[in-house]
Fold this protein.
Amino acid sequence: METRFVTVVDGEKLMSYLSENYLNLPDVLFLDLNLPRKNGMECLSEIKQSEKLKDLPVVIYSTHLHEKVADLLYQAGAHYYIRKTDMIELAKILHRVLNRLVVNKFARPELDKFIFTMERASL
């Protein structure tokens, strides 16, 4: 199976990319909460309000883990919330998140499983 990885530098470019490629969306979007020009929460809100994009699974990541922000992101439709960490741990978390998404057929988890950590990844 072919894997394609696309990055953008800010939230405005992300939304333009998704709008231009809505017929060929990614299987999952990893969205930095602190994107410049349009932050992750603004992008998530636009994605989930769009008929063309609303079913796109979105995994939010950030350098900080804020439970109140996580609650807002969950209510807005994100699939998981991951705290950025070192590359080795992050690679393990991303692998487990992708496996969990596929196994669960991209269904959103319950709120108590929304924040994805290494401890939760081993469950």
Summary: The CA atoms of residues 99 and 105 lie 10 Å apart.
